[in-house]
What does this fold into?
Amino acid sequence: MWGELALSLQQGNAYVLSILALGFFATVIFFERFIMLQLVYHIDFSKFLTNLKKMVNAEDLTRAITLCKNTSATSLPHIASRALEAAEADPTKVRGTIEEEAIEFLPQIEKRLAILPAITLMIMLIGILGTIDSLWIAFQSIDVLDSAKKQATLARGIAGSLSPTALGLTFGMILLAGYHVLKGMAISLTDRLHHGVTVLLNLLAPQESAYYMPMPAQSHEPADVPRVDADFSSEASAAPEVHADESFDDVSVEDIKDEEEII
It folds into this structure.
């Protein structure tokens, strides 16, 4: 198989060259994504969150921001750094800042991953098309040859026609395996990032339940009408007493005056 592939490559088979070009492009994407997911975005999330909790609980936001910047310029440390800066400037914007940064970063995890299955499918289809084309040429060439050369020519044509399919299947298996490895890394990183964002929200922007104030229990009786009646009745009962007191005062004063005149 490998000898036939080398021979096809020396002869400049367009299908083999196309498969190699697409395979090289897919390999570059694979290594770029592997480096980003495993070396750039990946950190020790548990250690980072533990140290961040200690600094935030100690109200040392400056050291917490320094820790985030020294750990990584992307991923969860970048989100935490922006959230801490918002906490220093305006604590009411912490939740919105975390959500914005998380929504902006999450698509970066699976960026260009969907290209790998598409390239793999194209490589396999090109290999099959190359085989069909080579077989077609081989069967057409034996029509102009004598019977002594037909068998050898047909054998060489069939053997050479299988080279694009073999190369396409080889690249397809390798790229599919690499795609699933990268997909698993992306899913794991996304889950850890969701957990980290939840920890940041609970740490820097507690739930709205902290602002909830329980209301006093309401009475089953009507709220305002009886109270108004009671007020009016009290005022009405108080009013005659005032008038009675005033009339009593007037009578007593007149009696005192009469007694003084008699004396």
